[in-house]
Every structure is written in C-alpha cells, then in structure tokens.
C-alpha cells in the first residue's frame, strides 16, 4: 500500500506552494514542469517535522515532484543510502539544484562519496558528471576528517574535467577547485597551482574555471582565514 505520509507531505507542499516561486525557478535554470513552487525554507521545515526515514525518502523520490525529491535529501538516512540508489538518482537529475542538494545535504555523509566522485568524474551525462564535482566540493567543505591526499587526487580530476565546456559541469568543477583550495594552506597552494595552469589555457572552459577560482583562492580574506586556522 502507498505510504500515507507521502500523500500527507504532498498536501503540505501544495498548501505552501506559490506561483511566484514556481515561475521564479526558470530564472535560475531550474525546470518547473514537475514543481509546485515551494520555498526551500518550507521544505526544510517539513523535513524536520517528518524526521529521518529511508523508506519515506525513497517513496518521496518516486513521486517525481521536484519539492518531494528535494525533501528526500533531508529525510533520508545517510547510512542506509546505497551505491545503486545514488547511481539511479544521479541518472535522473535534470537540473543543478537537485544535484547539488543531494550532494551537499545527503551524499557527502554516505560511505560511498569517494567512490562516486571517482566513477562519475568521466561520466557522459552532464548532471551525473556535475554530481562528481558537486560531491567533491561538498566533501571539501563539510568533511573535517578527509585527508589532504584525497583532495590532491581530486585536483587531478578537476584539471582533467575543466576542459568540459558544458555549463553545469564547468561550474561544478570550479566549485570543487575552490572548495579544495579553501581547506588549508597546503591545499590552497596546490589548488592555486592548478588554477593558474587552467587560467593560462588557450581554451575558454578551463581558462574560465582557473581565473574564477584564482579570485577566491588568492583573496586576502581566504588567506587570513586559512592562516588563522593553521595557528
């Protein structure tokens, strides 16, 4: 039998939907064909009410409703997320927002993050490949225990993928480069070396990735923060 909590969640989301929010999604390159138009703050509020539940998260995802899929990222239990589930959901991505949310909120906390970063980095699908670098950025920004050696390997993936001209891949690669370079002084130096090589490329995609990353990684604010962290 269908989980009655899914129907209840959809009713709650519909009640909190707004045409203005739904229409506004298009300005951020988020398709709204399957969306209701609910603010992220309200989705997070509902997630707190529902609590963690893996089965419920899977059922919410299956609805295909944009907000229900966003909600699933906050409801799912990281320890119960499977590698097969991540592959299937990544293949279903059709926009950057759902990709980044699952990576930053949920997948970064699963035991499969490292393996998916490596496997998806050369995937043909635009949003699956973006997921590799959104997940790498998420690990860089959220996992305090990750080793520098893992990020040095990640920089090799970044440098190779920077030649991908597709907009959402390019921006994901840039996010990962900036995230790695914002962890500590040693990784900042390594990321700056990569960004500098990319910035000097004759090709537009890697050149943009490098130049944009250099602005953040060289900034006085970033240097002060990393120096303070090193004390």
For the record, the CATH architecture of the largest domain stands as: Alpha Horseshoe
* Helix/strand class: mainly alpha
Order of helical and strand elements = HHHHHHHHHHHHHH
- Strand proportion, as a percent range, falls in under 5%
Number of domains: 2
Helix content: over 70%
Morphology call = globular
Largest sheet: none
Radius of gyration: 19 Å
Architecture overview:
The protein contains 14 helices and no strands. The mean pLDDT is 97. The longest helix is centred in the middle third of the chain and has 17 residues, at 126-142. The N and C termini lie far apart (57 Å). The protein has two domains: 1-76, no CATH class; 91-231, Leucine-rich Repeat Variant (Alpha Horseshoe), CATH 1.25.10. The protein is mainly alpha-helical. It has helices spanning 4-15, 19-24, 40-50, 54-62, 66-75, 83-92, 96-106, 113-120, 126-142, 148-161, 167-181, 185-199, 204-217, 220-230.
What's this model, at a glance?
The protein has 231 residues and is mostly helical. Helix content is 71%, strand content 0%. The termini are far apart.
What secondary-structure arrangement, pairings included, does this model have?
Layout lengths: L3 H12 L3 H6 L15 H11 L3 H9 L3 H10 L7 H10 L3 H11 L6 H8 L5 H17 L5 H14 L5 H15 L3 H15 L4 H14 L2 H11 L1
Short key terms for the protein model shown above:
231 residues; mainly alpha; Leucine-rich Repeat Variant; 2 domains; 14 helices
């Amino acid at each position: 039998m269908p989980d009655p909590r899914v129907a209840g969640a959809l009713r709650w989301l519909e009640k909190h939907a707004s045409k203005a929010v739904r229409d506004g999604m298009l300005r951020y390159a988020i398709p709204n064909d399957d969306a209701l138009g609910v603010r992220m703050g309200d989705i997070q509020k509902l997630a707190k009410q529902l609590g963690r539940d893996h089965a419920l998260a899977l059922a919410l995802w299956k609805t295909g409703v944009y907000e229900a899929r966003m909600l699933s990222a906050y409801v799912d239990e990281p320890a119960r997320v499977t590698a097969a589930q991540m592959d299937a959901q990544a293949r279903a991505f059709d926009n950057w927002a759902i990709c980044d949310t699952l990576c930053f909120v949920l997948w970064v906390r699963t035991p499969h993050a490292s393996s998916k970063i490596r496997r998806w980095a050369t995937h043909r699908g635009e949003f699956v490949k973006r997921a590799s670098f959104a997940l790498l950025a998420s690990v860089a920004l959220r996992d305090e225990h990750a080793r520098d050696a893992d990020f040095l390997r990640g920089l090799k993936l970044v440098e190779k993928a920077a030649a991908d001209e597709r907009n959402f891949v390019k921006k994901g690669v840039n996010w990962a480069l900036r995230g790695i370079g914002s962890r500590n002084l040693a990784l900042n130096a390594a990321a700056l070396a990569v960004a500098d090589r990319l910035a000097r490329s004759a090709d537009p995609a890697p050149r943009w990735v490098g130049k944009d990353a250099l602005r953040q990684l060289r900034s006085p604010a970033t240097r002060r923060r990393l120096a303070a962290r090193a004390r």
